[in-house]
């Protein structure tokens, strides 16, 4: 294999990216083809739509929103944050069209930086990695929690415990690892199923909430405001409620990470990002309105251990509530599977450029399944490591996975910021924003900065060890380790994305 060399610049590629087929585009960026392209446009959209997963996100965060702003923030905050996330997604999609690789965010950061390419790429990659691992762990933990809620409804003598939650979470993540190990075709099929599961499940839940209850809240109830956070500032309490929507809208970089397995990736990957955000915004608003207007006793629901489940029980009865809860659990399981798939591709690409310990292991591809099997199990192992503290302390687990959203959105913002700094030197792909590129990018970076700060502020008062927001500490630990590692060894061996040769050379290395 020829030694890695400086990758051809964007301006050195074929002038019209539309004339490049998928393999030629990948070869122009210095990589041989090692993964199977089985993801069509719908499959690419499905991965991000499934990771965003409005059913999982809304049911997980609805209770927090009831106490941090109430219906006014849950509904109007959803609309406002969805628009902001669409700005972030559009700016990311433009970058994805120009650099359709599994490396996605970290790769584009290294290519868009004018100086210190290795450092920009390094920090973006590790923020993305930690955020995705935290997302896989958090989604599995949420699914385990709702599974236990279902069991408790079915068998009232069952008493959920932290140990049981951890064990169920471990089983879920291991099964998702096996699904990702078997074949990328299976994952694509499951992602297609997940889209219809979400859409049909949404229709069933919303229809049940609209038709079955004998009473609903008045139209003006959507303006009801509640601040039970413990903070005296209503503005601050309401701003905290925006986190419900922000928490839901994570993981749409999955379409970017699946670029090397997507046909016509320069167009289908960015479209997948935009469509996933847009569809999630609309369907999520419908679900949010259905839940809000089905609330009967606000205080009773707001103090319940699982407020959305309480709404279902109050309005639909125990039997129907249990059936709908199965839909919710299924959505969470699909979400975790898609999240793990995206996480695996990021590990594969990051290690391909030598940025992880044991890189030669993690970027290898199974000759039988054409999937990065070892990267799958590294992602599983890291997610399980985050789960284990939950055996002793729920607060410890929450502290670790809270970096999920902050890590991901900071990783989203870096290549967008660097693209803005590059100005007219940026060579867009076939999907681009044209003259709107700069204003969209500015809004995206500004919103990401503000929302990241919001995620690191205290979220409940009085501040105790149980209510303290450990996200800043978790993020500081990640950045400290990454910085120490960078200055001790990494900066001497990692220069950012590498090239395995000129296009004709890497074409000869294709393994498929």
TrEMBL record:
GO terms for cellular component: membrane. GO terms for molecular function: transmembrane transporter activity. It is a multi-pass membrane protein. Keywords: Membrane, Transmembrane, Transmembrane helix, Transport. Its main location: membrane. One of its GO terms (biological process) is amino acid transport. It is found in: Membrane. The keyword rRNA-binding does not apply. The chain crosses the membrane at residues 41-64, 76-99, 120-153, 165-188, 195-213, 233-252, 273-295, 315-340, 375-392, 398-418, 439-458, 470-488. It holds the Pfam family AA_permease_2. Gene3D superfamilies: Amino acid/polyamine transporter I. This is Amino acid permease.
């Amino acid at each position: 294999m020829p030694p890695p060399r400086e990758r051809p610049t964007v301006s050195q590629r074929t002038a019209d990216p539309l004339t490049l087929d998928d393999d030629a585009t990948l070869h122009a960026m210095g990589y041989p083809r090692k993964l199977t392209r089985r993801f069509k446009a719908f499959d690419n959209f499905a991965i991000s739509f499934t990771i965003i997963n409005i059913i999982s996100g809304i049911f997980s965060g609805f209770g927090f929103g009831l106490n941090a702003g109430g219906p006014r923030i849950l509904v109007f905050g959803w609309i406002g944050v969805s628009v902001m996330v669409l700005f972030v997604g559009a700016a990311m999609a433009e970058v994805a069209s120009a650099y359709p690789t599994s490396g996605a965010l970290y790769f584009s950061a290294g290519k868009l930086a004018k100086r210190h390419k290795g450092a920009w790429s390094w920090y973006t990659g590790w923020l993305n990695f930690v955020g995705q691992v935290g997302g896989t762990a958090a989604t599995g933990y949420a699914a385990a929690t709702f599974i236990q809620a279902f069991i408790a409804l079915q068998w009232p003598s069952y008493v959920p415990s932290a140990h049981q939650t951890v064990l169920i979470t471990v089983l879920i993540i291991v099964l998702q690892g096996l699904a990702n190990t078997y074949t990328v075709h299976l994952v694509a099929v499951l992602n297609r199923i997940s889209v219809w599961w979400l859409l049909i499940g949404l229709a069933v839940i919303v229809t049940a909430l609209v038709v079955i209850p004998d009473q609903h809240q008045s139209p003006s109830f959507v303006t009801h405001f509640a601040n039970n956070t413990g903070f005296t500032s209503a503005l601050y309490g309401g701003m905290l409620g925006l986190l419900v929507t922000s928490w839901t809208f994570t993981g749409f970089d999955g379409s970017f990470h699946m670029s090397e397995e997507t046909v016509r990736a320069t167009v289908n990957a960015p479209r997948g990002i935009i469509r996933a955000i847009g569809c999630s915004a609309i369907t999520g608003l419908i679900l949010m309105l259905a839940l809000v207007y089905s609330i009967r006793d606000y205080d009773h629901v707001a103090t319940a251990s699982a407020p959305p489940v309480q709404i279902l029980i109050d309005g639909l009865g125990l039997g129907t509530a249990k059936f709908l809860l199965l839909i919710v659990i299924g959505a969470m399981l699909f979400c975790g599977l898609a999240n793990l798939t995206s996480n695996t591709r990021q590990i594969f690409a990051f290690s391909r450029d030598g940025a992880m310990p044991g890189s030669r292991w993690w970027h290898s591809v199974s000759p039988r399944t054409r999937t990065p099997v070892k990267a799958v199990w590294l992602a599983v192992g890291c997610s399980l490591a985050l789960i284990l503290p939950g055996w002793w302390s729920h607060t410890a687990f929450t502290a670790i996975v809270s970096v999920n959203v902050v890590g991901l959105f900071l990783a989203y913002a870096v290549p967008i910021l660097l693209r803005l700094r590059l100005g007219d030197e940026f060579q867009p792909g076939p999907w681009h924003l044209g003259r709107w590129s700069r204003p969209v990018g500015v809004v995206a970076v500004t919103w990401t900065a503000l929302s990241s700060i919001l995620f690191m502020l205290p979220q409940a008062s009085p501040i105790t060890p149980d209510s303290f927001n450990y996200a800043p500490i978790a993020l500081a630990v990640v950045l400290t380790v990454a910085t120490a590692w960078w200055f001790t060894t990494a900066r001497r061996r990692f220069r950012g994305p590498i090239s395995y040769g000129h296009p004709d050379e890497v074409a000869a290395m294709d393994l498929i």
